[in-house]
Every structure is written in C-alpha cells, then in structure tokens.
Amino acid sequence: MEPALAQTPTQPADPIAPNPRTLSGKCYVIDGDTIVINKTHIRVAGIDCPELDQPWGKKAKFAMVGLCKGQIVTAHIQEGMSYDRVIARCTLADGTDLAAKLVEAGLALDWAKFSGGRYRHLEPAGVRKRLWRVAAKHRGKLAIPQAQDS
Asked: Beta strands 40-44 and 85-92: pairing type?
C-alpha cells in the first residue's frame, strides 16, 4: 500500500530535494540514518552513519532518537530507493536538518556521492578517522552488502 504523501512545491536549485512529495509525522528510529514514518522506512539523504554493530553506531541511533523524540519529522522524498527504503531529506518543524545535526555531532559523515558535499563543512576535525569504516565504504575500500532483488 502506497503511503499518503502531500504535494508541495519544490525549489529546483536544491539538489537534495528534487521530488515534491513529503511525508510527515512522529517517527521511529531504526538506526542513525534510517527512520520510519507512518510505516514507511526512510533513508536519511546525503549522510552515512555507522551500522549498529560498529563503533559509534548505537550512539548515532540514540542521537537521532534524541533529536526526533516528541517531534514531527517531515521527509522530503527524493527519487530512488535504498534497500527498500525511500530516500529523503528529513527536517523538524523548526527547519532543523536531521542529517546536518548528526554530521555536526560527529556521528555521521557527509556522503558526497549522494549529497554533492552539502554536509562536508559540518564534519568535525578527525571524524573520518574515528568513523573509519564509514569513510572506507565511501572510498570503495569496504564491501557493501548487496540488496537482494525481490
């Protein structure tokens, strides 16, 4: 069943939000870069967090929980899917960009391949060394499990 999505105008100059669909509501946090709103799994666009079984993975998840707790999150949905998740730029009602907050906290890296470098300037010094597994994945030095086609 397709989730009910609101149509809103977009600003074509924003490379992160080319699709006019949005989904809003309280969310459930799966990990640092995956949330669920109204039963729709959402991959936070432009960043990458450590997996839960990696160092800093649980901290990233609980930082996202802290940001979202009691808040209405709006997912500005983009084209494409990632491991059966829609991809979206996610914001709070006050305009706070969740991806930016995780990068600033040193719990996520900008993934320039998907963000165009939008969040790189927010990365604290030394974060790529601390989140070395995530950084290695971005450089193609760490295998990414392939999603199975259904």
From this structure: parallel
How many Å apart are CA 143 and CA 57, to the nearest integer?
A: 18
Percent of the chain with pLDDT over 70: 81
**Strand-by-strand arrangement of the 85-92 sheet:** 6-7, 21-25, 73-82, 85-92, 40-44, 34-37, 27-31
- What is residue 8's DSSP assignment? -
The predicted-structure confidence for 44-81, as pLDDT tens digits, reads as follows 999 999 999 999 999 999 999 999 999 999 999 998 87
Task: Name beta bridge partners: 22.
Answer: 6, 76
- Alpha carbon of residue 138 to chain centroid: 15
